[in-house]
Specification:
- The complex is a heterotrimer.
- Chain B is mainly α.
- Chain B has 14 helices and no strands.
- Chain B has a single domain, classed as ABC transporter involved in vitamin B12 uptake, BtuC (Orthogonal Bundle), CATH 1.10.3470.
- In chain B, α1 packs antiparallel against α10.
- By secondary structure, chain C is of the alpha/beta class.
- Chain C has three domains: about 230 residues, Rossmann fold (3-Layer(aba) Sandwich); about 160 residues, P-loop containing nucleotide triphosphate hydrolases (Rossmann fold); about 70 residues, no CATH class.
- Chain C has 17 helices and 20 strands.
- In chain C, the strands form four sheets. In chain C, strands 6-7-8-3-9-10 form a six-stranded mixed β-sheet, sandwiched between helices. In chain C, strands 16-17-18-13-19-20 form a six-stranded mixed β-sheet, with helices on both faces. In chain C, strands 2-1-4-5 form a four-stranded antiparallel β-sheet, covered by helices on one side.
- Chains in contact: A-B, A-C, B-C.
- At the A-B interface, β1, α6, α11 and α13 of A face α3, α4, α11, α13 and α14 of B.
Chain lengths: ~375, ~325, ~500
């Protein structure tokens, strides 16, 4: 900061909250930030691989759209990340920091797997799948409800609570795998590979199509819920100002619990889709960090489910593209995480220039 | 029996040291109101920075000097974690970004950096095999010369490399600085009520930056200890595991007190490996026992929120960025 | 004669188009207590903030010990040995008194809290404070916290002390103790400025009284020559005619009977004491009082937002003739009883409206529950928003603009517009014209009058006595959470209300 001279009366610059900014200006700022982050990413890749950056980006695009198989994998990844992002969004809009999506997905998935593994051969497939779906949703709800109840009752710090719940779920999954896989290899193979009991069927011969369709529908439903339903309106009011919520007679505790039930249910659904519709097995990496990435996706999209399609695409595209580069150049696939991190840094950093402005004091007006 | 217990205690301490670095660093950071969820990432970076520097050094000379091994890797580790913490401080403090999102992104980034370089370092240098810094690892593992002569006691409590003692020392010094000095008073005031601290003439920004960076550097040493001492100079991807999050759990368990973090870390370290020492445990029940630290942390969290005892609460402004004009 | 400890000459400060202080002169000598007297919004706090370095004056000079000084920051003020005790305490809850007192200080030598505690004990003994330096702030009463704030300033060696409304939060006994301490400080040669609007306290403690009115400096008198009526007249001025229309109430039946309500805050402080009054249909009942005398809690009690200790709030339903007790009912329950109660709260963007939502969504705050489906109905709110924008001339780009982007006057039009749209039978408005320009203010007065003519019982909490007298049919005066009088708006006298507002506890009239 500039030190004022002896004669100067007040600091030369100060930062003030913007009263609002034209939407197109905001998007220009975000666009510039994304471009800048892509440049930095390119620079890093070029330094590591010493290749022409255009070739590198070409490889990234190939990694996502290069073949039909890759494209479907991209859509599948996108669907799962989007699904979890949709799950965390209502809670965030309410300013409830649910960092436990990872655990909620995992526990939901575990509930599915229990049924699939234990009674997979005893039920008709349709009944089994339905039971798994319900079990997953209930599991996700339970995992979200525990911290929500304590938040509502004692205002227990929800971000730390949900964070810890993740690891409880991870250990439960590890426990279950140890029980199910007696060899002690700690890796569970594909379950019911022969009978395909509890597997979501392929639709039109396409694997994952059901997952993708379900998430597509869910996106629209969530958009409508947040935008047009009374519940969505209430949770937005609670998130903006609890005082206003009280003033118009909203029961804040009830809204917190109801919203977390929804959030957990969608996480549970994601767990079901991963177990039944994708992996047909379970591991503690079931959510694969998407529970955390989803938080960033939701945040970057300003809690708008339709924009989340774009932000989650951006991240999945990067991850798959980076994976392709890593394979091509025989590097570690973790490069994807590095690039994801950089892009998020730039986008969350640029919000500052949208929300604040740097004023010179001479022309600026003081507050009260 | 006694030797089993002794070796358990020894192992608990070894497991506890990285956690102690991490939790001490996070306590210092959180005391100024910054909830840095990037600590797990910073610890990875603290480890890999040391590995990279050590690798380059060991490959540049045929006779690595132990002291130089230590100094170079130590400096690189501190630099790496300071850089990452700076990113956090800059984004949350100067650009007023959301602390949770920034922290999580930093962890993604940091773990990515760790695993990427861990997995690709040799390829970048056109070599094959796996990373193993023998000289550096040995230098870090050097314990007190008289430890062996003290029998079981020496073996249990004095057989560690110097970083282990450093961890305890740092925790004690942090406790002293936080509770007994003017700097600590000012620092704690910022975490409680930044507007009051600002009005009292404390430079809130500078304190928050410094605490975040110093806290991050301390946490990064936890990563360094793990790769240099615990695994003796070898890197395995994701080898550090979720210890970073465990460190954050300890902050709660220790009620934001660095002194309590010392024994808390050893307890958590013990819980982390106790399943190996309980005879006759099935491999599945081992996994359940590993759940204990997190369950205990949740119970502590619920307990302190229900009791509402002021001494036990998180710093009041934890997680909020401070903007003077918002007053 | 010695130089004054502090002297202000022609200090002027302008915020936007509002003149907060105009050509203010003030002189305080060592060993002297000066009261700075004025109504809310008269510029007292702004003036003191310029001495303590929070604002910088646009014009004028400040002299300390005869030397002209420039005070740019709180640190400069501190260097000139000026210390201000703010109305809102700036303390860290989880620290002890001693820790708070040394916070941010850069003393030489090794830091030892025991030494600080000893020094604090010395200061306490010298001036007669009662404080335990190792007690945590969160365990302290309000008056103890205030003591910590004062010692904090003394510890830093202040010679000029400014106390902003120090007695506002104290009981009479605590006030007496505080005055004793202040007198001790005077004996010690400190110069003390007390910002206040309680006349009896002014007379009890100060040597001189300076009066501000609407930002202007009215004058300074010696306390020994002053009486309550002289000071009141200086403070409130001559009556100004505002030409607000006032119709005679028609069919003024009882609508809302508040009976003996008591309210205790979470800190255990009694905020409302045995309040009773009746609001009648077709009438505007004004509520006058110093800020913080319980106005907010009173309205929130009626609106179902405040838990009451005792008493009842009886609503007479004009349609059914039924009588309902609204006490301990939530806002939703009150609405379900068929009570059309509207409330324009003091905190417009923090309570009445959601700043980040647009005008349409803010319209829905009251009505979104309507309809059987789980979906919102935005058509009627949109029509309402457009109607309010048109009828009340709200300046906004569109109905979908977030309300926080509107100017203060337009925000208030949106809020009041929404609240009267449900044709309430009871309309409560807290400081509805605060911060508004003349035209917007008159628009609000007209809206309130319209509601009155439509048969609503209007409760209007105001701060400008001229407005209260011209607008209201009856005026209830609150002082420290008690009703000190209910006067007729047509015959009321400004000085009379001013005296009731500052009336000491236990002096309930009527």
């Amino acid at each position: 900061m500039n030190k004022p001279e002896k004669a100067a009366r007040e600091p030369l610059f100060h930062i003030a909250k913007r009263n609002g900014i034209a939407w197109w200006k905001a998007w220009i700022i975000r666009g510039v930030a994304i471009l800048a982050s892509l440049l930095v990413c390119a620079l890093i890749i070029v330094l590591l691989t010493k290749q022409n950056p255009l070739e590198v980006y070409g490889a990234m695009i190939k990694g996502s759209f290069g073949s039909q198989r890759k494209f479907w994998a991209l859509l599948q990844n996108l669907a799962m990340l989007l699904c979890i992002s949709l799950a965390v969004t209502p809670a965030f809009k309410m300013k409830f920091w649910n960092l436990g999506a990872e655990g909620q997905v995992l526990f939901g998935g575990l509930c599915s797997m229990v049924l699939m593994f234990e009674i997979g051969d005893r039920l008709p497939n349709a009944v089994l799948i339905l039971a798994m779906l319900i079990a997953s949703i209930l599991g996700g709800v339970l995992w979200a409800l525990i911290p929500a109840v304590f938040k509502a009752k004692w205002n227990t710090n929800e971000s730390l609570f949900t964070l810890m719940m993740n690891y409880v779920a991870i250990q439960l999954v590890s426990f279950a795998i140890m029980v199910w896989v007696p060899s002690g290899s700690s890796v569970m193979g594909v379950v019911n590979a022969s009978t395909k009991a509890g597997w979501l069927p392929d639709l039109f011969g396409k694997k994952y199509l059901i997952n993708i369709l379900i998430v597509a529908i869910l996106t629209v439903v969530m958009f409508v819920y947040l935008r047009f339903s009374k519940h969505g309106y209430e949770l937005a009011v609670v998130g903006e100002s609890e005082n206003t919520a009280r003033y118009i007679g909203i029961n804040v505790k009830k809204v917190i619990i109801r919203t977390m039930i929804l959030s957990g249910a969608v996480c549970g659904l994601a767990g079901f889709l991963l177990v039944s519709g994708t992996n047909h097995t379970i591991s503690k990496d079931l959510a694969g960090g998407n529970g955390f990435t989803a938080i960033m996706v939701s945040w970057l999209a300003k809690f708008n489910p339709l924009l989340m399609v774009i932000t989650s695409f951006l991240i999945v595209f990067l991850q798959r593209g980076a994976g392709e580069i890593a394979t091509n150049f025989n590097l570690n696939t973790s490069i994807a995480d590095i690039l994801t991190g950089i892009i998020i840094f730039f986008i969350i950093g640029c919000e500052f220039f949208i929300n604040y402005q740097i004023k010179s004091t001479k022309s600026g007006k003081e507050g009260k | 029996m006694i030797s089993t217990i002794a070796s358990f205690i020894n192992a608990a301490i070894i497991q506890g040291i990285p956690l102690l670095f991490g939790s001490t660093g996070e306590i210092i950071t959180e005391k100024t109101g910054n909830l840095n969820l990037g600590i797990p990432g910073i610890m990875y970076v603290g480890g890999i920075s040391g590995i990279i520097a050590g690798y380059i050094y060991e490959h540049s000379t045929d006779t690595p000097v132990p002291l130089l091994c230590i100094l170079i890797t130590l400096a690189a580790s501190l630099f790496g974690s300071a850089l990452l913490s700076f990113i956090y401080a800059f984004l949350t403090q100067t650009l007023k970004a959301n602390q949770n999102v920034t922290g999580l992104a930093l962890t993604t980034f940091g773990v990515g950096v760790g695993n990427f370089f861990g997995g690709s370092l040799l390829k970048l240098f056109n070599e094959s095999g796996s990373i193993s810094l023998i000289s550096t690892g040995l230098a870090y593992k050097t314990s007190l010369p008289f430890a062996d002569k003290l029998g079981l006691f020496g073996k249990t409590f004095l057989s560690f490399g110097f970083l282990a003692y450093t961890a305890i020392l740092i925790a004690l010094v942090s406790s002293y600085v936080l509770n007994r000095t003017r700097t600590g008073l000012n620092l704690r005031a910022i975490g409680e009520n930044p507007a009051t601290a600002d009005a009292a003439g404390i430079n809130v920004n500078r304190y928050k930056y410094l605490a975040t960076i110093i806290g991050g550097m301390i946490a990064g040493l936890g990563g360094l200890y793990f790769v240099m001492d615990y695994t003796a100079g070898a890197w395995t991807n994701n080898g550090f595991g979720d210890r970073g999050w465990l460190a954050i759990a300890i902050v709660i368990f220790a009620l934001w007190k660095p002194k309590s973090a010392i024994w808390s870390s050893f307890i958590f370290g013990g819980l982390y490996i106790i399943c190996v020492y309980i005879p006759g445990l099935s491999s599945s029940s081992k996994e359940l026992i590993k759940m204990l630290p997190y369950v205990v942390t949740i119970l502590v969290l619920v307990f302190i929120s229900a009791k509402k005892k002021k001494e036990h609460q998180p710093p009041q402004s934890l997680g909020l960025s401070y903007f003077r004009e918002d007053r | 004669m010695a130089n004054p400890a502090i002297e202000l000459r022609n200090i002027t400060k302008v915020f936007g188009s509002i003149v907060a202080n105009k050509d203010v002169n003030l002189t305080v000598y060592k060993g002297e207590i000066l009261s700075l007297l004025g109504e809310n919004g008269s510029g007292k706090t702004t003036l003191m903030n310029m001495i303590s370095g929070i604002y910088f004056p646009d014009a004028g000079q400040i002299f300390i010990d005869g030397q002209e000084v420039v005070i740019r920051s709180p640190k400069d003020a501190f260097d000139h040995k000026i210390g201000m005790i703010h109305q809102h305490f700036k303390l860290v809850d989880r620290f002890t008194a001693a820790e708070n007192i040394v916070l941010g200080l850069k003393e030489k030598g090794k830091f030892n809290i025991k030494d600080v505690e000893k020094k604090v004990a010395e200061i306490s003994a010298r001036y007669g404070f009662e404080i335990d330096p190792s007690k945590k702030i969160y365990e302290m009463s309000v008056s103890e916290k205030q003591t910590v704030e004062i010692i904090k300033v003394l510890y830093r060696g202040a010679n000029i002390l400014i106390l902003d409304e120090p007695t506002a939060v104290l009981t009479p006994q605590e006030t007496e103790k505080l005055f004793a301490v202040i007198r001790n400080m005077r004996e010690d040669g400190k110069a003390i400025i007390i910002i206040t609007h309680k006349l009896h306290e002014v007379l009890a403690v100060s040597d001189k009284v300076a009066v501000l009115r609407k930002g202007e400096y009215i004058g300074t008198v010696e306390t020994k020559d002053a009486t309550e009526s002289i000071l009141t007249e200086m403070m409130v001025g001559k009556k100004i005619s505002l030409n607000i229309e006032r119709s005679e109430p028609k069919d003024a039946v009882d609508r809302l009977c508040v009976e003996h309500i008591d309210c205790v805050s979470r800190d255990g402080v009694q905020i409302l004491k045995d309040i009773s009054f009746t609001a009648r249909a077709g009438e505007i009942l004004g509520i006058a009082g110093i800020a913080g005398s319980g106005q907010r809690e009173l309205l929130e009690s009626i609106a179902g937002l405040q838990k009451l200790h005792s008493g009842s709030i009886i609503y007479h339903n004009p349609k059914t003739g039924a009588q309902e007790n609204l006490r301990d009912k939530t806002p939703t329950q009150i609405r379900e009883l068929g009570v059309r109660l509207s409330f324009v709260p003091e905190d417009r963007l923090g309570m009445g409206l959601v700043g980040n939502m647009d005008i349409i969504d803010n319209m829905m705050l009251r009505s979104y529950r309507k309809g059987k489906t789980m979906f919102l109905e935005r058509k009627k709110p949109r029509t309402l928003a457009e109607k309010i924008i048109r009828d009340l001339e709200v300046v906004t780009p569109s109905a979908t603009t977030p309300v926080r982007r509107l100017s203060g006057g337009n925000v208030q039009k949106v809020l009041v517009g929404r609240e009267i749209s449900s044709s309430p039978t009871v309309l409560m408005a807290a400081y509805p014209v605060r911060g508004l320009d003349i035209n917007s203010s008159y628009l609000i007065y007209n809206l309130l009058n319209e509601q009155k003519e439509n048969g609503a019982a209007v409760i209007f909490v105001g701060e400008d006595l001229d407005v209260l007298i011209e607008l209201c049919d009856r005026i209830l005066v609150l002082s420290s959470g008690r009703v000190t009088g209910i006067v007729d708006g047509r015959t009321a006298d400004k000085n009379e209300i001013g005296l009731l507002m500052t009336k000491a506890e236990g002096g309930a009239a009527e």
